[in-house]
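Pasting as-is:
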Amino acid sequence: MQTIVESIKEKIEIVSHQIPEFRVFFNDWTSNDFNTLFASLSLEREYYAARVLGSFHGRVFPKASHHLTYSSCSLSWLSEVPKEVLDPLSLAWNKGKILYYGDKNEVLNAYSAQFAKDLDSFLKARAEELVFGGLMAFIHGCEPIEIRTSLKLVYHHSNFWDLVSWTWLRRKDGSDGIAVHGGPMAVDMKVV
């Protein structure tokens, strides 16, 4: 965040001698360890830091309240496991596996459809939160269209360290408790 703030300050100094104060909001689920995050921030930082709890798949800020939104590697976290993957009667049923092994396109398609739905929600929410002329930047890995990996990790919006403590990462209903789109293919991003 410090790099972003410094870059913005440099641009503003060219046009104006009055540098605004910066507020940076860190957003995540309540189960995230914000104490570790805030302990890692430099005391010499040039911004005020605050946390905002809740899912980034929907709105977390008032309308037209931000000039810049930045998201790094969060878009792989899905809002939910696709229902088809959990349904034993569905062609996309994944038998409660945490990994996609490339054996059923229906599983991949279910996760891709959920990713597209979540990305759409994410972009619409940020569009409402940004001021007119505001900027959004996000980092998200993509696979080249030519590559369909044989192994995809899928997980849900839970704290990773909570998952590690689960026995075999299973819910009582036999499904994995997590859902992550291991990385959309470039074509998925173009479609959305």
